Amino acid sequence: MRHFLVLCCTLLALFSTALVAQQTSPTQPAKLASNDPSGLSMSSASLTKTTEQLLVQLTRAKLKQSLTLLEKIAHAEGTNMLPLFDTMLAGNLYFIKRNNQLISVVKNGNQKHYHDLLTAKALEPLPKKAIKKIRVNNKIRVYLRHIIAKLKLSDDDPAARIAALKSLLNDLNAPTIALIATLRIEEKSHAVSAIMDLALSMNQALNAPLAIDKIRAINLLERSLEPQVRNTLTLISDQYAGSEDSDALSIKKAADKALANIQQTTAMYGYIDQLFFGLSLGSVLLLAAIGLAITFGMMGVINMAHGEMIMLGAYTTYVVQTLMPNFLEYSLWVALPLAFIVSGCVGILIERFVIRYLHGRPLETLLATFGISLILQQLVRSIFSPLNRQVSSPQWMSGSLEINPIFSLTYNRLYILAFALLIFFALLFILKKTSLGLNVRAVSQNRDMAKAMGIRTGRVDAMTFGLGSGIAGIAGVALSQLTNVGPNLGQSYIIDSFMVVVFGGVGNILGTLVAAFSLGIANKVLEPTTGAVLASIFVLVFIILFIQKRPKGLFPQKGRSAE
Amino acid sequence: MSQLSKLFSRKANGVGPILPFIVILLVATTASILGNLLFDPSSIFHVSTYTITLLGKYLCYAMLALAVDIVWGYCGILSLGHGAFFALGGYAMGMYLMRQIGDRGVYGNPELPDFMVFLDWQSLPWYWQGMDNFGVAMLIVALVPGTLAYIFGSLAFRSRVTGVYLSIMTQALTYALLLAFFRNEMGFGGNNGLTDFKEILGFRLQADSTRIALLAVTSIALAIALIVSHLVLKSRLGKVVIAIRDTEARARFLGYRTDKFKVWLFVFSAVIAAIAGALYVPQVGIINPGEFSPLNSIEIVVWVAIGGRGTLVGAIIGALIVNYAKTKFTILLPEVWLFALGGMFVLVTLFLPKGLTGLMSQLHQKYLKKTVTETDEKTVGSRV
């Protein structure tokens, strides 16, 4: 029992450090969390008298006067007035005739939503006659676009500037280009100026008067992966197609070359993407198989109820989330140790009451544990209903890490990959460096000798089985973030996890790691050409054939521990 | 060939030990058929057509259990994929039945089954050719699962994959087939499988007489399978197989090609399973990929374990009892069935390693021993 406690403590410590690390990480600025339905939060700083007057004037102004008014407002208030400009550009700006209050009216399907422009507070629906639209014409629209871009581009936050620039890439026009060119001179952030250069080059490539400038700009573009760049280059290539002019030919050639380069890079990132998905699938397989690598690999127990240990872990997550709905962010950190304990205890019970009596009879063990898996499934079905349960992901696990415009890694898959490796190495540490691990290895290598040396083999068996099952429970917490949590969750992993362990070589934990990742990657590499189902069939058939050739797996055990 | 004849040369004990069971089986079948034909529904002796079909289904399961028992009980090969052979046999029969529908399908296409018309296929795939011929279809029923078993078996047994590894491989096999048959592109009706059958050999499948005939055929097939298996396993070949089960290495060192014995036994068993599948499909009227699911295959093993492995009759009795219990449970207490099934797995492996027949013979022996010791004492006493 002492070992088990030590183990729990180690794991708890691990998680708590991870928790602290999580809290201090700056992934979640408060700004993003604010939940504004209309996106119209205007800073509530009181407006100056003159601005208020200007706004009132705006409601009564004629189209011709609006422009000057807007210029004055922009000059006075700067970024504070972005919501006004945005709403006006979208044609949603209205005012209440009675008190000149500016409001936004957003039509969503058949419903209209009313918000106060300055406070972004939702308003009661207003009769059509009580409000009046502030009209805009093309000239004003052009100005609004310009001023919005300008305001956003002078935002203090570089990330905001980048976002503004990226949205501008879609329609670059002369005033924006001029604006970018002026801002470029004073830009300090490297990332921002890179995009500015990109925008300028795109403009040059399209509009430069001299062919040589165009070609230079095109050559600069060949490393960019933005879809807009690809469109521009295709446009240029089409524009000069069929032309006899030598300048035109060389421009077209440059554009085609740049396009080919981009295509190549895109293809390369496609492969990297596949690789990542393969690694992600591999980490799932690893998580599913890692507990089995102990119970089946080290102890030789054919535990068909292994999948149900994973399922119990996933259901523990569900229960934890239902019990503490207000602390979703931390629910996983509570669920992890709990799942370890729940699955571990169930594992110990199974070992003490069933498996112990079937020692040395692997086929009988297989049948008995299969029976247990049926009982556990039905138990979950009776308690929680046969339907899938909803397990939600905390905020920090959603979203994705954008590496470049065509390649991004989703956070949940990244975290689970890291988590699988963490668990794996923690387990490796336990097995190689702790006394429990030593005992486990001794018993698995030579039971009688271990017994003669005074190891209480029965207890070690129970602890080992508990450890393997507990880790399956932890895997269940992680997998609940990727798949549906239902009574059949475990069943869908059991065959895969046995395949991984057998393929890697029974009794070899490192083999399990290699097998999990190679099967995951093989599956994902095959998938685009064969389709998902056929890919998994191929992998299964491959393993069946492989086991015929090398019955002991990739890394067979050598020396004394081999039979 | 001489080797082969030598193997069978040793005179088997005949069908003596299983004869009572076969008689019971045939009498029970005849009785239920007569009960259906002669008595009108109000009579207590009447056997409804529903029961007749149910009986037929049970007998198919019994045959499947027999197939598993042959390899598991006598050769120690625990196959968790015998459902695959059963389902393959079923699919072959299903293909024949599909072709018999002709233009009576929903789309009325005389050549293509409904699901192919639905998938906009222009012509029959090559493997559907000739399946409208009953003889060809029956050949396929035995041939395809047999070949699969031969390939799988010879690969596995030659490289000496045994025990648990083999079990997991067989499970992977049936899982791979499950995934494959779910695909529409395979041309076996995908998710829905093959159904809506109309007639077999020109007889309407819904007709009572056809159902009775199917039960009779199934019963006879089971009897034949039992007799043949019994003869095979009691012959010299059977002795070698049992020797392999007990110590494969020793049998190998004595000069037997153990892998060949195992392969052929595996093929034999697969063909029996396939025939069971072929008889099953016309009675239940549908075959879909669900039959390939690993759970089904493991359930078969439980029938055998409960009945008692290593005794052919035991496997059959196990299949009948468990399936009867399943029918009752799923009607009365559907929630409890999986608990009961799971509990049976655990309890039988823990407390009844030889199954019900083992229990019977244990009790029998105990009784015998008692009488033997009594007589011994008597004789000893009289001598003194």
Largest interface: A-B, 40 and 42 residues
Catalogue the unreliable spans of chain B: 379-384
Number of helices of chain A: 22
Number of separate domains of chain A: 3
Overview of the structural elements:
The complex is a heterodimer of chains A (563) and B (384). Chain A is built from 22 helices and six strands. Chain A is mainly alpha-helical. Chain A has three domains: 93 residues, no CATH class; 113 residues, no CATH class; 262 residues, no CATH class. Chain A has a four-stranded antiparallel sheet with strand order 3-2-1-4. A two-stranded antiparallel ribbon of chain A has the order 5-6. With 384 residues, chain B is an all-alpha fold. Chain B has 15 helices and four strands. In chain B, a hairpin with a 2-residue loop joins β2 and β3. In chain B, α3 packs antiparallel against α11. Chain B is globular. The relative contact order of chain B is 0.16. Classes of the chains: A mainly alpha (563), B mainly alpha (384). Chains A and B meet through α15, α20 and α22 of A and α6, α7, α12 and α14 of B.
What tags apply to this protein structure?
heterodimer; A: 563 residues; mainly alpha; 3 domains; four-stranded antiparallel sheet; 6 strands; 68% helix; B: 384 residues; two-stranded antiparallel ribbon; two-stranded antiparallel sheet; 15 helices; 4 strands; 72% helix; globular; disordered C terminus
